[in-house]
Amino acid sequence: MRQTPCSFIPPSLLEEIARRGDDGQRDAALRTLAVDQTVRTARLHNLGVTVPMTDALRSAVGPKDHPARTIRDAEHGKRLDGPILRQEGGKAVGDAAADEAYDGLGATWDLFARAYDRNSIDDHGLPLDGVVHFERDYDNAFWDGHRMVFGDGDGTLFNRFTIAVEVVGHELTHGVTGAELGLNYLGQAGALNESISDVFGSLVKQHLHNETAEKADWLIGAGLLRPSIHGVALRSMKAPGTAYDDPVLGKDPQPAHMDDYVQTTADNGGVHTNSGIPNHAFYLVATALGGQAWERAGQIWYDTLHDPKLRPGSNFVAFARSTVRSAVRRFGADGEEAEAVKAGWEQVGVKV
Amino acid sequence: MATPHPEAPITFERHGGFGGVVLRTTFTHDELSAPEAEAIAGVQAEGATGHREPQADRFEYHLDLPDGPVVIHEDDLPEPLRPLVARLLERARERPA
Fold first, then answer.
1. Is the ipTM of this complex over 0.95?
2. Is A175 on the interface with B (CB under 8 A)?
3. Residue of B nearest to A142 (CA)
């Protein structure tokens, strides 16, 4: 389904290759920089210029055949430089959190590398570091800009946060979004930021299990809730607002349509709530196209991360229109892909 | 900090995190230890809370204090308040407001 493989190479990396590469690499980098005289002052990928990833450049970017994972132990404190539990290529250590984190980082790296030819989170081969057993009763996981941090859950509401591979995919995708779009974490831009993480988090799981869009559960955080909690996950892309309904957690507040958009100042303007709308749009697109969602729907969303017209404060309409442009660019204006994307957004009340 | 009625309920909420789930409970001023009361007064007096650049999936703690609401990012939580927050979270998990 993919077109000719190409990569977006930021000028900073090209300049680095030009400085440090061998003669062949330097020549290739300088030739590429010459494509556009403006690249000395602008980021190439923000200008939307694609350049072929030549062998000379590829060899200078870093290994692309495997991730470089390190899992550390916070020992139930806040330290991020604790003892190493497992490193790339090492055998399972019998610590469920450490082994699940290792596998989840690998599954995420796999999706981005195999499906989108992306070399890790920053596309420059960033090592994937994870820290497990963070604090006590810590029911969360987050990407701190450099590494993944996982809590063990509180044992009352939440299990350990490594238990669901889509959680790992979600958090690492915040790193990808930060590297490409830099979306604000506020209001509609923040909800898009959250949704993009849910989209690729779900795709990590589907890719790992080789599932079709029809067979996928489209749940985010499946297995995270303790047995006493009335719920199946934290979010449902298939049916936003139905993931849980519990006396302690309350009811899943996600809307699936703009008519039910939640105006709030809490949670940075409801970033985890209103993400249900673009989440559902992606689900509708993926299931309309059928098959493996990472191939066409996922490719369109991934291409959109590189749209120079998007800004940190872009809203749902701007993002939706960008996905349509991405679909047209990659699959053609008359293809079923562009039609499916338009229909998906229209069904959630976002005009394209 | 205005002198609160010792038994007037103060709402505590935790927002954000991966799940975006709100945990909520209440406490009263007379539940606070002296260092905790002092730390809360200090946080409110400094007025330096809630201005941090939002970070994906991190927690924020909201306190509805007599002098007005206070928002504290988890990384900014003063050390003396950590035991209080741990107690309130445990209470919210068992007996939500």
1. no
2. no
3. B57
